[in-house]
Amino acid sequence: MVAFLESVTGDPQVVARRLADREVLLADGSVVDRETAYLPGGLVFLYRDVPDEIEVPGEIHILYRDDNIVVVDKPPFMATMPRGSHVVQTAVVQLRRKYGLEDIAPAHRLDRLTSGVLLLTLRPQARRAYQELFARQQVAKEYQATAPLMDRLMPLRIENRLERVRGDHRTRIVAGEPNAVTDVDVVGVADGLAQYRLMPSTGKTHQLRAHLAGEGAPIVGDPLYGTQAGPGDDFTRPLQLLAHRLAFIDPINGEPREFVAQRQLMTLAEASTAASA
Fold first, then answer.
1. What is the distance between the terminal CA atoms of the chain, rounded to a whole angstrom?
2. What are the backbone dihedrals phi and psi of residue 275, each rounded to the nearest 5 degrees, phi first?
C-alpha cells in the first residue's frame, strides 16, 4: 500500500509523515502501516497538508470511556473524521493526538455542523460490533433542534425518500419509496420558534436538516437549508441541532447503555435573536 501511495502522490516524505502520525486509514478506519497489503478495488485515505486549517472553537468532552469505546460530546463545526479541507480539526484526529488513542475510529458519524453525542471505538476487534449497531438501526437516537414553529399537529412522523445528487451538497426529497423516517415533537415554543425533539429511525445524510426544511421549518443557523443560506462557518451562529442522546444494548457485554450530551442549544430567545441577525 505504501508503494502505491508514493507512486500516486510522488511525495514519499508526506506519505512517511502521515504513516508516522497514523493518519493514513482504510475505509473501515484501520490504520495503514508499511506492512499493509495493496487492496485492489479498496479505499485508502491519505489527506493532504492543510496549513491554513482554521481552529474550531469549543472542546471535545469525554462522556464515557472503557476498553472498547469512547463516547464524546462533539462541538459544532468539527467533522467526525478527516475529509477534504478538514483534517486536524476533526474528532478522530484530535482524540488520537490528545489521548494517544492510536486505533480510534468512529462507529457512526455526525454532520460537521451538528454537535453532541458521538461514539467511537478504541480497538479494531470491537469496531465491527458497534458499527453494525448503527447499520442495523439498533440504536435509539434523540436529537434536539430549534426551528420555526410548524403549523402541524404534533407529534408528527415525517416519512419520505431522500437522495443526494453528485455535485449537490444538499439532500433532496424526491418521489419514490420512503427511505427516511423521523418522529418529531415540540417541547417548547417562544417568539415564533420551537424546540423540537427529533427521533430518527433511519440515518440518511442531512436527514433531520432536510426533513425540517421540507416542512418549511429550517433549523436555525443552517447555512445549507436555511432561508439565509451562505457558504461560510460563522462560529457565532452554530447550527441549532444537537445529538442529545444515544441508547443501545452493548454488543460486547449485553449491558444497556445510555449517553446524554452535556451541551445545550441556545434558549429560544437567544435563537430568535440569532435568526433575525
1. 50
2. -70, -30
